[in-house]
């Protein structure tokens, strides 16, 4: 049965839409609501009569608004059933399947990537950025360090978090992965050692490998960082860099405390190791009150630290922007490394991000509300359908890191994909193999989708855990190639 949205809910979401003419204003408001996910795809819209009363408009206004939606591809009429939401080109256009080799069909639930739909307010940010763009068209459009307006906003955000920063310390990049690649090129040479957490975000460590560096793993336990062990690893390996994720670590979700950051900074100083702090998830604090009480950036304790930020997780994956915050003395080194990769990030997207940062107090709370709903639904579903799986509920971030009773993570993921749900097994996040007792499950889909995904996972787990070992080994080999996650 298709989900239904009430007329009162639509009226609440549509708000004070433009009424000159009213039917176009209503149609545009509904198009934005459908596009950014506040009204889901495949939802039955209220009848024209119901919405007429809820909005206090004429029946003609609603009728013509629905006609505009249908013509634009955001709604379809089903004989005898009503009007249902859609998007131009269908769901395949909304959800890229290129990361799912060997799979297809509308019934696939893709939880391989921890990526969410656009939050409310994104369309308006693009519209306002369009008004700012003409001022930049008379120039060449190349900003190797970033559009100054965005540099200033990023610097101000660090100031507000207790890390004094000037705009000249910020380099805007085409995503956080591009930032990691630039940093690796700037700071490492072939054969240099780089300490990385294990488990960790595999695409970033791949960028370090591409620069020729050798990865030295430092375990992150289910309960968090073992700083004594990490300090010993730093002493024994004499690394050039340490790539760490102190804010809602990917995939475990751990948050490093202020005291831990201070202790870590002292260990880094003793071994003269430059730390690269990946803050891609820093804005995704989900526990009430935590967003205003987050620890200061790791760079506030380590003067030579490099910090990487991202717009993709905080706002939307399609906004391919990241940044590097570094000491002023290191900016020339970063520019020289950068020009071998690109000459700057797109100007228009930078204007969009600058606008979003100006409106972050409006956009981020709504975004966090959606993530909390997804997290709570996922936690409830795993507890109900997979009670033997162990996990801790993170205070933020995007995913659950689940420990299985047996080392069957890859086999379970392979079987789950055959049942139409794609998740990443633990070995994908391991630096030197292992971690097959784990599976990462993002909570970035709708609560209903997450509940269905866990039901399928439970079926996969039941099948794999009761199958003979040789069959499990075959499944493990079949699923071992999946490495593209986000």
* Strand segment count: 15
The portion of residues assigned to helices is: 40-55%
Over the alpha carbons, how many angstroms does the gyration radius reach? Answer: 24 Å
What about the largest sheet? 8 strands, mixed
What is the percentage of strand-forming residues?
Answer: 5-15%
Question: What class do helices, strands and sheet pairing give?
Answer: alpha/beta
Mean pLDDT: 88
Protein described:
The protein has 486 residues and is an alpha/beta fold. It has 17 helices and 15 strands. The protein has helices at residues 7-14, 22-35, 48-55, 59-72, 91-94, 122-132, 148-160, 176-187, 202-210, 227-237, 258-271, 331-338, 347-358, 360-385, 409-418, 447-465, 469-479; strands spanning 75-78, 82-85, 109-110, 170-173, 193-198, 214-221, 224-225, 241-244, 274-278, 306-310, 322-325, 399-403, 421-422, 424-425, 438-442. The strands form four sheets. An eight-stranded mixed beta sheet has the order 4-11-10-9-8-5-6-7, sandwiched between helices. Helix 11 (258-271) links the parallel strand 8 (241-244) and strand 9 (274-278). The protein starts with 6 loop residues before the first helix and ends in a 7-residue tail after the last helix. The relative contact order is 0.12. Residues 92-104 and 468-483 have low confidence and may be disordered.
Fold topology:
Blueprint: H1 7-14, H2 22-35, H3 48-55, H4 59-72, E1 75-78, E2 82-85, H5 91-94, E3 109-110, H6 122-132, H7 148-160, E4 170-173, H8 176-187, E5 193-198, H9 202-210, E6 214-221, E7 224-225, H10 227-237, E8 241-244, H11 258-271, E9 274-278, E10 306-310, E11 322-325, H12 331-338, H13 347-358, H14 360-385, E12 399-403, H15 409-418, E13 421-422, E14 424-425, E15 438-442, H16 447-465, H17 469-479
Parallel strand pairs: 3-13, 5-6, 5-8, 8-9, 9-10
Antiparallel strand pairs: 1-2, 4-11, 6-7, 10-11, 12-15, 14-15
């Amino acid at each position: 049965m298709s989900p239904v949205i009430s007329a009162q809910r639509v009226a609440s979401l549509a708000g004070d839409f433009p009424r000159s003419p009213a039917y176009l204003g209503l149609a545009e408001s509904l198009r934005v609501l459908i596009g950014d996910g506040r009204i889901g795809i495949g939802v039955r819209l209220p009848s024209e009569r119901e919405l007429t009363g809820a909005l206090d408009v004429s029946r003609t206004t609603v009728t013509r608004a629905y006609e505009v939606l249908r013509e634009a591809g955001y709604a379809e009429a089903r004989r005898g059933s009503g009007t249902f939401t859609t998007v131009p080109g269908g769901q395949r256009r909304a959800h890229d399947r290129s990361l799912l080799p060997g799979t297809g069909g509308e019934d696939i639930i893709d939880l391989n990537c921890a990526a969410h739909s656009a939050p409310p307010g994104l369309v308006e940010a693009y519209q306002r950025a369009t008004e700012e763009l003409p001022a930049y068209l008379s120039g060449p459009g190349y900003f190797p360090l970033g559009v100054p307006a965005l540099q200033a906003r990023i610097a101000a955000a660090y100031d507000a978090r207790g890390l004094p920063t000037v705009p000249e310390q910020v380099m805007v990049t085409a995503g956080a992965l591009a930032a990691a690649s630039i940093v690796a090129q700037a700071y490492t040479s072939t054969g240099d050692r780089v300490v990385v957490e294990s488990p960790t975000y595999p695409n970033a460590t791949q960028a370090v490998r591409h620069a020729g560096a050798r990865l030295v793993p430092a375990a992150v336990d289910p309960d968090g960082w073992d700083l004594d062990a990490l300090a010993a690893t730093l002493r024994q390996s004499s690394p050039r860099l340490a790539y760490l994720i102190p804010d809602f670590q990917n995939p475990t979700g751990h948050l490093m405390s202020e005291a831990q950051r201070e202790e870590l900074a002292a260990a880094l100083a003793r071994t003269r190791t430059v730390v690269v702090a990946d803050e891609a998830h820093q804005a995704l604090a989900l526990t009430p009150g935590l967003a205003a009480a987050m620890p200061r950036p790791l760079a506030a304790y380590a003067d030579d630290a490099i910090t990487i930020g991202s717009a993709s997780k905080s706002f939307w994956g399609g906004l391919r922007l990241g940044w590097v915050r570094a000491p002023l003395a290191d900016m020339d080194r970063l520019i020289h490394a950068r020009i071998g990769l690109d000459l700057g990030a797109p100007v228009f997207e930078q204007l969009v991000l600058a606008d979003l940062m100006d409106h972050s107090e409006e956009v981020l709370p709504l975004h966090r509300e959606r993530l909390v709903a997804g997290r709570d639904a996922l936690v409830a579903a795993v507890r109900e359908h997979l009670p033997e799986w162990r996990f801790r509920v993170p205070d933020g971030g995007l995913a659950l890191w689940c420990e299985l009773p047996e080392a069957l993570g890859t086999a379970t993921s392979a079987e789950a994909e055959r049942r139409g749900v794609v998740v990443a097994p633990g070995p994908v996040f391991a630096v030197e193999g292992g971690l097959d007792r784990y599976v990462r499950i993002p909570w970035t889909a709708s609560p209903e989708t997450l509940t269905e995904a866990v039901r399928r996972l439970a079926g996969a787990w039941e099948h794999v855990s009761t199958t003979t070992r040789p069959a499990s080994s075959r499944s493990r080999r079949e699923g071992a190639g999946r490495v593209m996650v986000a």
